[in-house]
Amino acid sequence: TLYFLTKTPATKVLAFEPSEDGLRQLKSNLALNGLVETPRLEIIPKCVGDSITGQQVTLDSLAERIEQPCLVKVDIDGGEVSLLEGARNLLRSPETRWIIEVHSKALQEKCLELLQTANYRTLVVRNAWWRNFLPELRPGELNHWIIALHLDNSLGWHER
Known about the structure:
The protein is α/β, with parallel strands linked by helices. The chain has helices spanning 2-7, 20-32, 80-85, 88-91, 105-117, and strands spanning 13-16, 41-44, 47-48, 56-57, 70-74, 96-102, 120-125, 144-150.
């Protein structure tokens, strides 16, 4: 959230934080960086998934708040597929780009399948070579990122 507010010209940043502790930390970091009152930020204290409930929203349900072009950066530790399933309309937009962090091979494969079915070109970014010597301290099978650009707007980017 801090990066997108301070290092990009994004006109709107939506931050989702369902946990009270995470929300306190986010607000504290915003205050330390003088960003509490920025009109560019909207904090939504809910999970993002594939249905609308008291504690969850879908990206599609927020369509009127999402300006194009947009970048969706996802790090939700297991809910990636649910998020994509709740973003079917957003996935149709050639101006939407995705960065999705995944922590298991199964999640990675399912996310790749959903993105590629939605006409996205994908690239999996694996851990840096030095992780062989300084392993990732977070639990989990792996820590990869999926980068996805719509084929109608891939700007000559080549799949690997």
